[in-house]
Design a protein that fits this description.
The chain has 359 residues and is of the alpha+beta class. The strands form three sheets. Strands 1, 4, 5, 6, 7, 8, 9 and 14 form an eight-stranded mixed β-sheet that branches. The protein has a four-stranded antiparallel β-sheet with strand order 11-12-10-13. The chain has nine helices and 14 strands. The protein has two domains: 16-197, Ribosomal Protein S5, domain 2; 199-349, GHMP kinase, C-terminal domain (Alpha-Beta Plaits, 2-Layer Sandwich). The two termini are 31 Å apart. The longest helix has 21 residues, at 233-253. Helix 2 (125-141) packs across helix 3 (149-162) and helix 6 packs antiparallel against helix 7 (256-275). 47% of the residues are buried. Bound molecules: ligand DP6. Ligand DP6 binds at residues 27, 30-32, 34, 38, 44, 123, 125, 163-165, 220-221, 224, 270, 311-312.
């Protein structure tokens, strides 16, 4: 990637407003462990989602003369000011201000809304940080830059500095992040969209069972820290490279049996790592385990290629091909929804990444 030139003056005339939508993503091979500046300890690969998105608009205007902080901004979530999000946003600005020095010279009004409930326990940092990074990068580069592939790589680089997994939300359907032997295009610094994806994965289904809609008991930042000095760290990082290599073959060939085996072992490895950390965390709930057992029994009984993956929380992502979606969704409604808090679940599918919101 070409080096960034710091953008001292925003390209667009001030005041100006830009808006982007960006989806969440679900990792198949998990990023767990990082080092400064926000670089992954192991490579990961995810499916980009479609329905779970953040829509963000950024209005960029003159900095009020009375502003005292390093950055002058407001943040609204679904129309309500949310000052408790300011430290996270300021941390992000701080990490990207060498690329966007104008951040200290303007006022920003950031308005976001998620298409999924904020309290759902779905990680919103990937969609939120990628949408914000794209808005800021468009302000810096101007709308003409949107046709330049480099624009998206650089936006992914900036998004990574907000939240690691956010760098994978820029494109779809399959995005790799982190250097690994055998994929020369993969980078520690930004995501790379694979061009070898079997059609079965282009519209794969992800039904997210909301087992626990409370706040996560371990933030991802704390979680990644747990890998520092973890007794199994070295073996895990080695395994992730191996799994990534296998997963890329599986994704290219559409081999669903191997897909299921790898995806479920990755999910359980993530939780095993947390359980074996110091301090240790059990983020699965009894209902999480009950659902996992149900999925495995259903697969055995029907031979339907349905599997699960997990984030750093209790919710279960049920993954399956679109061709069997009617049958599987019916089974989910009949057998699994009872395990969800308030019977809540989200039907998502694999999508193609972020896009500007016009008008
Ligand atoms: C378990 O990207 O949320 O979802 O870089 O600290 O913002 P930060 O962490 P984050 O971690 C995601 C961890 C994961 C696995 C994954 O998405 O690869």
């Amino acid at each position: 990637m070409k080096e960034f030139s710091p953008i001292t003056q925003p390209h667009l005339s001030i005041p100006h407003q830009v808006a982007w939508q960006s989806p969440s993503n679900i990792a198949l091979v998990k990023y767990w462990g990082k080092y400064d500046p926000q670089l992954p300890a192991n490579p990961s690969v995810s499916l980009t989602l479609n329905q779970c998105r953040t829509n963000t608009s950024v209005w960029c205007g003159p900095r009020p003369s009375a502003a005292t902080g390093t950055y002058s901004f407001e943040f609204l979530l679904s129309g309500t000011p949310k000052p408790d999000f300011h430290p996270k946003i300021e941390g992000f600005f701080h990490r990207i201000s060498s690329y966007l020095p104008f951040l200290t010279q303007v006022h920003l009004r950031i308005e976001s809304e998620n298409t999924f409930p904020h309290s759902s326990g779905i990680a919103s940092s990937a969609s939120a940080m990628s949408a914000l990074a794209l808005c800021l990068w468009q302000i810096a580069r101007g709308a003409e830059a949107l046709s330049d592939p480099e624009f998206y790589r650089q936006a992914s680089y900036l998004a990574r500095l907000g939240s690691g997994s956010a760098c994978r939300s820029i494109w779809g359907p399959v995005v790799v992040w982190g250097e690994t032997p055998g994929i020369p295009q993969a980078s520690q610094e930004f995501g790379w969209a694979s061009d070898r994806v079997h059609p079965v994965f282009a519209d794969y289904q992800d039904t997210i069972l909301l087992i626990d809609q409370g706040q996560k008991s371990v933030s991802s930042t704390v979680g990644h820290q747990l890998m520092v000095g973890h007794p199994f760290a070295e073996a895990r990082f080695k395994q992730a490279h191996d799994h990534l290599g296998q997963m890329m073959e599986v994704l290219a060939q559409g081999d669903l049996d191997r897909f299921i085996d790898l995806v479920e072992r990755e999910a359980l490895t993530l939780h095993a790592l947390m359980m074996a950390s110091n301090p240790s965390f059990v983020l699965m709930k009894p209902a999480t385990l009950a659902v996992i057992e149900k999925i495995r029994a259903y697969r055995k009984a029907t031979q339907n290629p349905v599997c699960f993956t997990l984030d750093a929380g209790a919710n279960v992502h049920v993954l399956y091909p679109k061709s069997i979606s009617k049958t599987v969704l019916q089974w989910i409604q009949d057998e699994l929804v009872v395990y969800c808090e308030k019977e809540s679940y989200i039907c998502d599918t694999v999508g193609s990444g972020s896009s500007p919101i016009n008008g």
